[in-house]
Amino acid sequence: MQLMAEDKGEFLLVSALGDRIDAAGAIQFKDQMRDLTQNQKGRVLLDMSQVSFLDSSGLGAVVAVLKAMGPDRKLELACLTATVQKVFRLTRMDTVFTIHAEVPGGLRHAG
Amino acid sequence: MLDRDAQILLDTKSAARASIASDPMAVREGLRQLFDTLLLRSIPEDGRGTAQIVLAEALNNIVEHAYARHQGEIEITLNLKPTELHCKIIDSGLPMPGEVLPEGKLAPLDELGELPEGGFGWHLIRTLSHDLSYSRIGGKNHLSFRLET
Lengths: 111, 149
Prior knowledge:
The complex is a heterodimer.
Chain A (H helix, E strand, L loop, with lengths): L2 E5 L3 E6 L3 E2 L4 H12 L5 E5 L5 E2 L1 H13 L5 E5 L3 H9 L8 E2 L11
Parallel strand pairs in A: 2-4, 3-5, 4-6, 6-7
Antiparallel strand pairs in A: 1-2
Helix pairs in contact in A: 1-2
Chain B lengths: L5 E6 L3 E7 L2 H11 L3 H4 L3 H22 L6 E8 L3 E8 L29 H8 L1 E8 L2 E9 L1
Antiparallel strand pairs in B: 1-2, 2-3, 3-4, 4-6, 5-6
């Protein structure tokens, strides 16, 4: 799983460039997210448009990143694909995360 | 990744069988191969998504708990019926504690600091599957269930 971070001013946009966050890659995802977000003060938005599959280990990693950010920072998600959405819905994690249908501002591919 | 870590043994329109080594990377590779079989390519996107979730959770549990990171083999047999997929998974790892399947109850989600980072697997399997059954036969775990396609 490769992650790419761009500072969008209002938030840090992190794009997941791999197609799976699964048991084989969950720890690596968590470590990379921690490295990318450690100096970020405000919101972090994770663009998951390329992630076609996430298992419970992957979900656990996303939750761990949210928890590690603490109460003063925020991890939000964008562009969940159908199967990923299903995992969030069935585990009720869709009630915990702010989930955007699109990257706010439509800036995903700009600049 | 060696080829023998994940192998498709049967690939027809109505049946598929795979053998996957007990390892997270082999599971990823095995699922990729399984979802490229004639059988799983023929079912609609929503059914494929459901099957991917349930099979991944079942396989991950075997890697993590039945084989507990030791070497072993997992055999998966899929049979396609008109509106459903019959799945059977066999491993030679440790039995389920008490030889019963976990309840798969979700932990509460009220406190940010207390959010669960695991324990979702059996909840997903139980929610998405029908006729989930487990038995220990001749030193092997047999898990079977039906999925809507």
